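Please, structure for the following, as tokens.
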Amino acid sequence: MPDEALPPIDLATREEGHGPPVLLLHMVGGSRAVWNGVLPALAKECRVLAPDLRGHGRTPAPDGSVYSFAELEGDLIRLLDARGIDSVYAVGLSGGALLALRLTLDQPERVRGLVMISGSAYTDNHTRSISQRWAETLAKDGRDAFGLRLLKDLYYPDWIEAHMDFADQVRANVERQDFGPANRWAAAMEKFDERNRIASVRVPTLIVQAMDDQVVDASHGRILRQSIPDSQIRILPQTGHMVPIERPAETIEAILAFVRATEERRSAPPAGG
């Protein structure tokens, strides 16, 4: 891992269930709460760990942290070691999907399956421009305008119209959140590019991509599917960037079906045995 990195820290983590271990990784500026709608159902069949990444949720922001992927990855390895877990299904949303990919590439023995939701192999100019627009809106127009901008960019319009209480909650959270860690992780994401290594992924992989994602263009789902050998893709129409929140039932079904199939292959006797 060539990135700059401070020593790993302990992550505040919600853990539930028994069975194949599933690690849920949230997006930049989010928390483990993004998985609240899917975690209980997953925990009926799996041992689920949903950490707050450094500087997010209930995990403190270490002094001097640059929020490089090496730092974030080191924290995850520390978490798995502390829980006695050899390998997991790494499931990530957005920036968490990029982190899950990096973990898979750097520590393939620790990942038995990869699920990338609203992810990509690299950060393109479109996503950079969205991130820059968020930063400018927050700096120039204030937190309420920033909250409205997030709602427009992150969610499918019809979904937000049907969930105005949720929209009000997002705006309230924006008013009190410290965005320093998110800004530093977003800066690290601007340089993310694993196109040269993506074809080396050798674990079972599921790609979940929303057709109406305004942050990560839907074309990235096809790029991942074409680049990762034997990968699968699930495309969701009329869905925005925040798939686990907008489509919890489909997210649960996709992850559980993937884990079941992969576990079945892992337990099958060798060919000719």
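DSSP finds eleven helices and seven strands in the chain. Residues 167 and 176 are 15 Å apart (CA to CA).
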